[in-house]
Amino acid sequence: MSGAVLTQASTFTCQSKGIVSPTAAHRLTVAGASALTAADVVGLDVTGCQKAEQAPMARCKQVVPPVAGSAGRLTVDGVPVLTTTGFAAATGGFGLPVPQSDPPELPGPGKLRAVANQNCLKGE
């Protein structure tokens, strides 16, 4: 596994400032926050998306499957946890293509960005 484990303390945002706030109560925790699986994120509401709600654009409303970025060996009850490496999730929202001049760390329309928000050291 590479990348930081995503937890309920992680930040999930869409390109238009929408926020997803997952909750979980798994036994596996990182810095006191429960690790997340794809099932903990899919179906959650996106709040605060500021995308214009007029054709051909639609506001981000919910996280939809599939969610990518699962750890290979680190699991919770046999289900891989999510990591920052390869994390990808769609929100069901869509919009105009993102111009190439946008910073590369911003996701495209209808996609979530994840930040682990961990201030602990990782071992190799």
What does this structure look like?
The protein has 124 residues and is mainly beta. The protein has one domain. Helices cover 3% and strands 27% of the residues. It has a three-stranded antiparallel beta sheet, with no helix packed on it. A hairpin with a 2-residue loop joins β3 and β4. It is elongated. The protein starts with 10 loop residues before the first strand and ends in a 9-residue tail after the last strand. The C terminus is likely disordered.
Quick description:
With 124 residues, the chain is mainly beta. It has one helix spanning 38-41; strands at 11-14, 19-20, 29-30, 33-34, 64-68, 70-76, 79-82, 88-90, 112-115.
Number of strands: 9
Helical proportion, percent range: under 10%
Element-by-element helix/strand order: EEEEHEEEEE
Mean pLDDT: 78
How many domains? The number is 1
Main sheet strand line-up: 2-1-9
Based on the model shown, name its key terms.
124 residues; mainly beta; 3-stranded antiparallel β-sheet; two-stranded antiparallel ribbon; 1 helix; elongated; disordered C terminus
Question: How is this fold's topology laid out?
Answer:
Layout: E1 11-14, E2 19-20, E3 29-30, E4 33-34, H1 38-41, E5 64-68, E6 70-76, E7 79-82, E8 88-90, E9 112-115
Antiparallel strand pairs: 1-2, 1-9, 3-4, 5-8, 6-7
